[in-house]
Amino acid sequence: MTLLERLKVETRQAHDRIEAAIDLERRIASRDAYRDLLARFYGFHKAWESEAAAMAPDRDFFQSRCKTQLLARDLETLGLGSDDIIRLPRCQPLMPLPAPEAVLGSMYVVEGSTLGGAIIAREVENRLGLTAETGCAYFRSYGRDVAAMWKSFGARLLEASSPEADDLIVGAAQETFNVMHDWLCETP
Description:
Layout: H1 3-21, H2 24-27, H3 31-53, H4 59-63, H5 68-77, H6 82-86, H7 100-128, H8 146-160, H9 163-185
Helix pairs in contact: 1-9, 3-5, 7-8, 7-9
């Protein structure tokens, strides 16, 4: 079993748990509810990107996948001022990322949510009439390149795979799902 196959199998329960708990119907029922969802994603990404950047195995690869600026742009488009965005709560506590392999495991969750984001974007566009230019940039982060970006991330994961690293990568992915679940599903 490859590392990607193992990640999919061993994180399936955590993935399903967050998907069931997030209540997407309610979170995109109105612009206000959608803005609140984006604010929660912002709080996660802002904290996570700051923490993970220090340990990322390839800083340029990592930076090209950061989403905080897209979230800030969406939030501004939806009526929050830059001062309001700076004051949004940050996800705490985050899981420790003691090694580059842990960052890759955590990125598996973040990059995987980008794939799901394309589906969410279609729902947001249909229900709220928002596009990447009018408040849905985060969920459309890679545009038409979403599959290529996932494939390149998968290749990076497989390059890092080793018997020693794989347990750390899978453990970090599972913990990231747990932290993200608790953060996104908590009532602010």
